[in-house]
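Field reference: sequence -> structure
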Amino acid sequence: MHLYASTPPPAPGRRLRPALLVVTAVLALVAGLLLAWPGRAGAAADPLISRGKPATASSTESSSLGAANAFDGSASTRWASVEGKDPQWIRVDLGAGATVSRVKLTWESAYAKAYRVEVSADGATWTRIAEEKAGNGATDDLTGLSGKGRYLRVYGTARGTAYGYSLFEAEVYGTVDDGPPPGGGAFTVVAAGDIAAQCTASDSGCAHPKTAALARQIDPKFYLTMGDNQYDDARIADFRAYYDKSWGTFKAKTHPVPGNHETYDPAGSLAGYKAYFGNIAYPQGKSYYSFDEGNWHFIALDSNAFDQAAQIDWLKADLAANGKQCIAAYWHHPLYSSGGHGNDPVSKPVWKILYGAKADLVLNGHDHHYERFAPQNPDGKAAATGSSRSSAAWAAPSPTRSSRCSPTARSASAASTGS
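Structure field:
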């Protein structure tokens, strides 16, 4: 999903009420959060504009050597491609159109002997701004460049060793056109519901290792889960035996919520879920919580407890205290679905609260498919000022706000595991 935030918010009192969007299964979200940036008149040198930005690569040697490592500012982490194959590339999304003046590459011992530095406005058509044909590793500081685009990639055509390509850091300097200051910009989120069956990668029909591989390839800033994380009864032993072997790789970067299967644990409702995720699932001491990223406020809810006043009161207070322009909420049971479970009215009061707060996105699990609907209001009626909803669910804004918070979703996978 692409989430935009480039235009100023409407005048107080004139913000139109959006309809919500719903989605189920596995979803990739690319969020462009573009903030206002004053002019750089008098700046002594162009700033670093790539730090922390979302990155992808043609391949990775392992899950711990992902593309994001080359843009995290740490000299102890690195990206590495698979070994022995040419060509290979690594790409960064600068979040908005940018003018690039300098690129600094700090190679690990597996360096590129020949490579190109290219820019692109759309990630499809590339323009070369620098080329190296006799590289010797260490550090390449390419200055005096002149290129314009939102995306920059380093495209390796010949390895300097028998291994692959490996970068400790790739630093891009320049100016972002009407975009964010250094440290702001786009980020990527992967969300999934109904994740791990009681099977492992040794079983060719086992889905969760495959969806985890897709999620790893996307290399997002963080992960959201939408409940039924572990089948059948979410016991701690099953979490450790199955979920932990696939999606557990992302545990430290995961913001989970529980589903109905988490309540079936013989040790007690949510016992295995809480034992496995710990404070990650209860960062505010409850099974529901919120957090911020960029221009977005994320609200994680427990739809098993929507009939409890404590959560509803907390949601109202959380929304009242929110200062972010864009709001996303996610939980397990969808209000609307064309799947086998169908519509679930348990979340109707929550939808109305979010609608009243001008929320932008809702994401759900439970039914095992990917689904999007035409614009509608919380009653499921067509509404010109609403937005689409999808099964596996994010909630989107009205057309008047599309330049700030409007999402475009793509399904990475939709593998069902249970009910």
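Note: Residues 1-44, 179-184, 385-403, 408-419 have pLDDT under 50 and may be disordered.
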